[in-house]
Specification:
Elements: H1 21-31, H2 35-64, H3 73-96, H4 100-113, H5 117-124, H6 130-137, H7 139-154, H8 159-186, H9 196-207, H10 219-276
């Protein structure tokens, strides 16, 4: 009997292809934050969210009760410190994030809308019309609305659903703030805007590009009408794409489930036939 020669088997080792991953991994390494820095950023974002909600509630309360914010020193102080905290958040994150210039380029707009312009105007005694001062008061609300929209997006694990929630939050925030500004500007001189709900109805109908029987009289109202109509034309197709994508994904999942059930059924049927033989 001739002995059977055995050759030692060598374990095949596969080298992962890192040519494509190296670019994304390098980018992730640049954006990586240590755990303690990530925790600081999370705490700052939570505080910014709370301050944003407080600012929205404060301005809404004054608008609904026809309170002159320029005559209220308490409001001026609250908005000043909220704006200063917004700036503080941007400065701290600038020193935390590794890519400084990238952070500056992506956050310069939020720095500009966080400046307490209304306090600067009051301090230097700059003369502006009450309507213009009211509009300037809404500048920090841009930051507040954007933060709320981002929070809605984070609540969803699915990236597409999160993006849809962000767009929806931006739309709701824009309609709400535009209706407040339209109500303040128009309700004294426009007979069609007797209550805030009339202004909200106008804003909703304008953003859907359907139109409303309430006509704009002031220049601010006309500008708001153009902005809402443009936003509706931009964002509503996003909703259509989201619904279409959701339906297509559901149909793909249902088809895959049907194929899996059919395969299981065929396997059981084959096993049953074999047992009979």
């Amino acid at each position: 009997m001739t002995p059977i020669e055995t050759t030692p088997t060598t374990k095949a080792t596969t080298v992962p292809d890192t040519s494509k991953a190296s670019v994304s991994d390098g980018k992730d390494r640049k954006d990586y934050l240590p755990p303690y820095k990530a925790k600081i950023v999370k705490i700052l974002h939570t505080l910014v969210l709370i301050a944003s909600i407080g600012l929205i509630v404060l301005i809404s309360w004054d608008s609904f009760h026809n309170i002159s914010f320029l005559a209220s020193q308490q409001y001026m102080n609250i908005q000043f410190w909220i704006c200063m905290f917004f700036i503080f958040d941007i400065v701290v994150e600038f020193f935390i994030y590794p890519r400084k210039w990238h952070y500056v380029l992506t956050h310069i707009f939020f720095l500009l809308v966080s400046i307490p312009y209304i306090n600067i105007i009051a301090y230097y005694g700059i003369e502006l019309s009450p309507e213009m001062q009211y509009l300037i008061r809404f500048v920090p609300m841009i930051r507040a609305g954007y933060v709320l929209a981002l929070v809605l997006g984070v609540l969803f694990s699915n990236k597409i659903s999160g993006l849809f929630a962000t767009y929806l939050g931006l739309l709701i925030a824009t309609v709400y703030f535009a209706s407040l500004m339209f109500f303040i500007e128009e309700h004294y001189i426009n007979p069609g805007v007797s209550t805030y709900w009339s202004a909200l109805w106008w804003a909703f109908m304008d953003v859907t590009t359907v139109g409303c029987n309430i006509n704009c009289i002031t220049p601010t109202g006309k500008v708001l009408g153009v902005i809402l109509a443009a936003e509706g034309l931009i964002l509503f197709p996003v909703f259509t794409v989201y619904i279409t994508n959701s339906l297509s994904q559901r149909s793909v999942r249902d088809a895959a489930e049907d194929r899996r059930n059919a395969a299981i059924k065929a396997k059981k049927e084959a096993a049953r036939q074999d047992s009979k033989v």
